[in-house]
Amino acid sequence: MKPWANKPMPAFNNHLGFVVEEWREKHIKISALLKPEHLNRSGIPHGGFISALLDAATALSGAHSDDPLDYKKALTLSLNINYLGQAQSNKLYAIGKVTASGRNIYYGSAEVFDSFDNLIASGQGVFRWRKESTDATR
Predict the structure, then answer these.
(1) Long-range interactions of 6-11: CB distance < 8 A, separation 24+
(2) Distance between CA 69 and CA 71 in Å, rounded?
(3) Which sign, positive or negative, has the C-alpha torsion 49, 106, 122, 115?
C-alpha cells in the first residue's frame, strides 16, 4: 500500500472529486473526472475548478511525508494562474512540484493537462506550513 493512501485529504478536494495518483517528496499528481457541475455555461471546465486543482497540486506537493504520524498541513499565501487552453477530454490531471523552500515557507508550481496531454493551465504559489505540522526535514 502507498504510504499516503490512508492520509485524509482536505474535504474540499474530496468534494470536487480530486484523486491523488502519485505523491512523493516535492511532487504530486492529482486527477479529477469532470462532472456537469464542474463546467461553465460554455460547457468547458470552470476556471474556479481549474484554480482549485492547481491550488491542491501546488500546496500538497509540499505536504508529503512517508511517516503516517507526520501529516503536514499548509495554507496558500499567494496563487497565480495562467489559463492556456481548453480541455478536450472529461478527465484532467495536475502535476505539482515544490520549486524552493525555507523553514516555514515554500514555493510551488503546477500544470493542468487533459487526457490527451494538452496543457490547460499553469500556476505558481507561495505556501506556509501550518504550526500543527510536525517539524520534519523539508
Answers:
(1) 6/68, 7/68, 7/71, 8/71, 10/56
(2) 6
(3) negative
Confidence band of 5 (pLDDT split at 50, 70, 90):
low
**How many C-beta atoms surround the C-beta of residue 48 within 10 A?**
11
Q: Which residues pair with 65 in a beta bridge?
A: none
CA-wise closest residue to 62 among 127, 3, 130, 9: 127
Mean pLDDT of 52-78: 87
In whole angstroms, what is the distance from residue 71 CA to residue 135 CA?
A: 10
Going across the sheet that includes 105-114, the strands are 19-24, 27-33, 91-101, 105-114, 119-129, 74-83
pLDDT at position 130, please?
84
pTM of the model: 0.88
Angle (CA) 110 117 79, round 5°: 20
Superfamily of domain 11-129: Hotdog Thioesterase (3.10.129.10)
| Residue 42 backbone zone (phi > 0: left; psi -120 to 50: alpha; other: beta) | alpha
